[in-house]
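ENTRY TYPE: paired fold submission
RECORD: A
CONTENT: sequence, then structure tokens
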Amino acid sequence: MSKLSTMKKLLDGVEVEWKALGDDDFVEVANSGRKPVKASLRVAGKTPYYGANNIQDYVDGHTHDGEYVLIAEDGSASLENYSIQYVSGKFWANNHVHVIRGKSGLNTRFLYHYLCIVNFISFLTGGGRAKLTKGKMVEIPISIPCPENPKRSLEIQAEIVRILDTFTELTAELTAELTARKKQYNYYRDQLLSFGEGEVEWKELDDVFDIFAGGDAPKGALSNIETEEFNVPILSNGIGDRSLYGWTNKAKIEKPSLTISARGTIGWTSFRDKPFFPIVRLLVLSPKIDLNLKYAYYFMKTIEDAYNVPQNGIPQLTKPMVKDKKFPVPSPGVQARIVATLDKFDTLTSSITEGLPREIALRQQQYEYYRDFLLSFPKLDAKVAARYE
């Protein structure tokens, strides 16, 4: 029998009853134990200190001990994918999270998985800084399978938890492996790019690259989406897709180059192998000597945190802060060997079409598919829904 058939059999004929998070027969709200502490006043320790989105610190002492679900009260990083955290053991909760757990008829881990599919937006107040008040939080409906048979209900909840946890545990294992691989990659990268005295020629960056900063966005020739006419990316400071400002019809940089973020994500180096238009002081490094640009990219990644940027006013990296940095120029053969080695690691740790990131993304999609299938119980009818508005 397939996994999907097994799941269908598990849910076959199962009736559900809708309860609110404020139903104290099923849910305990443990907000009274929360205690915010300023960073300067926290005593360092081993207990995780939770805020709206994740662990903020590790402190001495605790506010709660047990199995709980934390729901962001305010400050969730995303409103569409609202911040829900599962914790077990001793922890410290500040006042940016609601603290709840299931009682005897509700598996707390089941509650966590269920809340991950809830659309919280209609329960939020406060406009710009959206907030989930306790008054609104306790109105959120949850579904309890087989309410007339508590024993069967808990068995179904436990089986759903077991199935979903299989996927989350695999994703966690892959994520841990990816973290280890990235550390390994950084170690080998730094070793490969550490040259002894006299091994290679060192030049100042200004002697290796033409360096200049991006200006204003092109006026008149600008599109928010890529079209047949506007197919040249306009790039600003940022990482990955966050650096894309829009599209234009004429490139300012035609040949492969490197870019360095001058604001925000200061120092972040990117490899650009297609024509683009730089803006907002984004630094562009175009080779003016015979150089393997991918080698240059890998070296520049090792010095991303080495720039001396004044912190008064708006921090900004400028050409004078970059141009005197020392850059090693080994033989073309050595450059090629370094690139071949690091490309393999980079594919494993960064590629979304190959390697671990792709595997993690696929497992997350699989988890979300089965989660939605297992927890998509019959919707509330109008009369029941009205009780939660």
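RECORD: B
CONTENT: sequence, then structure tokens
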Amino acid sequence: MSGNPVLNDNRFTTIAYSVPAEGVMTVEGALKKASILFGALLVGMLVMFGAYAALDASTPGAGMALAGVAATVGGIGAFILVIGLVFVRPKGTPTFAMTAYVGLEILFLSGFTYIMELAYPGIAIQAGLVTAGITGTMTMLYTSRAIRVGPRFNMVMAALVGTVMFVYVGQMLLYFIGGVTIPFIHGSGLIGIGFSVVIVTIASFTLLSDFYFIETGAANQYPKHMEWWAAFGLVMSVVWIYIEVLRLISKLRD
């Protein structure tokens, strides 16, 4: 089991792990594929961010409006896609799902980051550096075995992530049905900041579950296409950390 719902081992019990013809999963292969997804996501974000800025320069307010539409469409689409992948597992390499996810996250992250950057100048670089720092720290904690990761740890993480997803889905439904928001958690008071700190912590620790999945998959000779699943889960965790860090910094700067 993994704390990342998309990488839950129970989803892959139908796969035979007896050295498939396609080859077997390796740690290096999974990290290489994660780099490809990260690269595509970063380039896409920079291109879209530049497009919003250029549009605003020529037509004030137009770039901001487009960023808002992109963030809304990309955010809702990516959320629905991830929820779908928790319950439905495509056979083999989820090429379409990964391509769609990266495309939707490019829309959401570029739009959301642009809007936040206009409201809080410099926040994009701050959030990027903090996210990189968290990722590096969690990597060192895992490789040094400072934190023991196993089935029990992943079970706890799965429960925590599930709880957060329940809160977010509930908030989304309440907002669309009656325009209601859950009190305090989105505010810049102590409760709101504390809530964001907790979510950032949970998101950060999902990286340990991702690393465990990659290491276990390589040791158990999972099929080669599982490297893409591992990369997908890793990217999803880092994206989540970045989003939550952006929110936390914005609350601290209010």
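NOTES ON RECORD B: The two ends are 39 Å apart (CA to CA). The chain has seven helices and no strands.
STATUS: closed
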